[in-house]
């Protein structure tokens, strides 16, 4: 496969996953607002912090009211990681490689773009309850995933899209967990209170993990939530699961059937997968969860750069896309 085509497919996977995660985060945060005590200030700043774009937000806005945050995260094209920017970039990547996609995939990508345009025209961010819109966007992206799962051959293109999707998902799970533990960490008096429970419940729901977690662990406990979202081997949004699947995609792409590694990207992701596979949640918390997750995000970005160097930049002069969150 041409490196130019592989690049577009890889970033199509990343952009769609980014938009879908933002839609979910916004929806869950609105639900959390309904359950918080009346006298408690709405917590929109952590939602921006979770995306890694806090400095950019402060450049354009003063304060963290719901309308400013919603516009910035969903529709502001000055924000290269907003839903609108991600969907627009996903559509452009799909357009360029249209002959490599199924007809249905292209059509639904196009529909998603116009859905976001319509939301912008209607100023959804100013509505009292915009959750229905974000639910619709999330479902459209999940529909795209379903179409791809059932209609595309498992060739190199398929694995490049999956690779982008899983790396993006691992990054977003680490960020949303970091925000709860580092920014929303309650005072000693609030630990174990209904408010603390609400925050952990919202965190689990933001990655569609609440019911699965309760079946596996029962009661909500911070250490158990961390173990589930970082190290679980079966939940498809845990960091370990995503890294393991991304490594498998890399092996399929390079034809590596004998174990070990064939390139620097495989080496880097194999090292990270191995560390996660044999990690213990007590050791993670003792090390410092914020520091551990920050280190994970740096490694995921490094892996993305290694993928670019091994599969895109070296083989082609195509200019790489530059909206990986730092």
What's the quick description here?
This protein is mainly alpha-helical. Helix content is 71%, strand content 0%.
Number of strands: 0
Oligomer: single chain
The helix fraction, in percent, is: over 70%
Low-pLDDT parts are 315-320
Give the domain tally.
1
The Rg value, from CA coordinates, equals: 19 Å
Mean pLDDT: 87
The biggest beta sheet is recorded as:
none
Number of helices: 15
Order of helices and strands: HHHHHHHHHHHHHHH
Kindly estimate the percentage of residues that lie in beta strands according to DSSP: under 5%
The secondary structure category is: mainly alpha
Overall, the morphology is globular
CA-CA gap between termini: 29 Å
Descriptive keywords:
mainly alpha, 15 helices
Question: What does this protein look like?
Answer:
The protein is an all-alpha fold. The protein has one domain. 71% of the residues lie in helices and 0% in strands. The protein has helices at 3-35, 45-51, 54-60, 66-75, 83-96, 103-121, 131-151, 156-182, 194-206, 210-217, 222-231, 239-254, 264-277, 281-287, 289-313. It starts with a helix and ends in a 13-residue tail after the last helix. Mean pLDDT is 87; it is low at 315-320.
């Amino acid at each position: 496969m041409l490196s130019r085509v592989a690049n577009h497919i890889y970033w199509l996977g990343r952009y769609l996953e980014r938009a879908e995660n933002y839609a979910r985060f916004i929806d869950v945060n609105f639900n959390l607002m309904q359950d918080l005590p009346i006298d408690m200030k709405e917590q929109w700043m952590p939602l921006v912090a979770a995306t890694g774009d806090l400095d950019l937000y402060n450049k354009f806005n003063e304060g963290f009211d719901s309308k400013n945050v919603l516009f910035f995260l969903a529709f502001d094209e000055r924000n290269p990681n907003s839903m609108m920017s991600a969907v627009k970039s996903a559509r452009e990547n799909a357009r360029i490689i249209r002959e490599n996609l199924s007809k249905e995939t292209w059509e639904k990508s196009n529909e998603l773009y116009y859905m976001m345009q319509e939301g912008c025209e209607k100023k959804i961010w100013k509505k009292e309850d915009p959750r229905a819109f974000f639910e619709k966007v999330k479902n459209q992206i999940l529909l795209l995933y379903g179409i791809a799962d059932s209609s595309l051959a498992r060739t190199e293109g398929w694995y490049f899209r999956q690779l982008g999707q899983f790396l993006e998902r691992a990054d977003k799970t680490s960020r949303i967990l970091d925000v709860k533990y580092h920014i929303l960490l309650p005072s000693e008096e609030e630990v174990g209170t209904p408010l603390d429970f609400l925050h952990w419940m919202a965190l689990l729901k933001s990655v569609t993990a609440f019911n699965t977690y309760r079946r596996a662990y029962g009661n909500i406990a911070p250490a158990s939530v961390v173990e589930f979202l970082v190290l679980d081997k079966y939940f498809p949004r845990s960091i370990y699961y995503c890294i393991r699947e991304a490594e498998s995609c890399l092996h399929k792409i390079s034809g590596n059937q004998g174990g070990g590694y064939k390139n620097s990207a495989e080496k880097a992701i194999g090292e990270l997968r191995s560390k996660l596979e044999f990690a213990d949640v007590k050791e993670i918390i003792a090390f410092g969860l914020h520091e551990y997750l920050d280190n994970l995000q740096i490694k995921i970005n490094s892996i993305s750069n290694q993928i670019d160097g091994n599969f895109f930049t070296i083989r082609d002069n195509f200019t790489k896309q530059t909206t990986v969150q730092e």
